[in-house]
Design a protein that fits this description.
The protein is mainly alpha-helical. The protein is 66% helix and 8% strand. The chain is built from 6 helices and 3 strands. Strands 1-3-2 form a 3-stranded antiparallel sheet. Helix 1 packs across helix 5 and helix 2 packs across helix 5. The relative contact order is 0.15.
């Protein structure tokens, strides 16, 4: 006898959302690695910091960056170290609070980000197009597209 849990729809929805995310991330990862030598996480860090570049507030503290890219503080530090070693990011002490460390995108990082954004966007569009062919994912793709229409 099969019992249906009262919240099984919620669990199925979460599984579908997780599947959509995984498909999108895998597609973007392959494209960014092949074209630019970047991982999805590296692109995310550059993208978050790149949007903040310029003038006052054109940087983030490491804890703010970790929160923005949904990584632990230690994983973010390792990622920033790799990007800094490649000359794509730089770090410096906060002038008003010597305990704070800011991270910002370098000129080379901004150039790479500008070249990688179209690749990211194209891979995202392709992944969504493929996912909407699957009945269990189509409603989620529609929701993502509705969010885009609001902008």
């Amino acid at each position: 006898m099969t019992t249906i849990r009262p919240d099984s729809g919620l669990a199925q929805g979460w599984c579908a959302l997780s599947a959509l995310h995984g498909r999108i991330e895998a597609r973007i990862e392959r494209a960014l690695q092949a074209e630019h030598g970047l991982s999805v996480r590296e692109f995310s860090v550059l993208d978050v910091l790149g949007d903040r570049h310029g003038g006052e507030g054109g940087h983030l503290r490491m804890n703010e960056l970790a929160d923005a890219v949904v990584l632990s503080q230690s994983a973010t530090t390792r990622l920033v170290n790799r990007l800094e070693d490649r000359g794509l990011l730089s770090r410096y002490l906060c002038p008003t609070d010597r305990r704070g460390i800011y991270t910002e995108v370098t000129g080379g990082g901004r150039e790479l980000l500008e070249r990688a954004r179209p690749t990211n966007d194209a891979a995202l569009r392709e992944a969504l197009h493929e996912a909407e062919k699957r009945p269990e994912l189509a409603p989620l793709v529609a929701a993502v597209r509705a969010l885009q229409a609001r902008d």
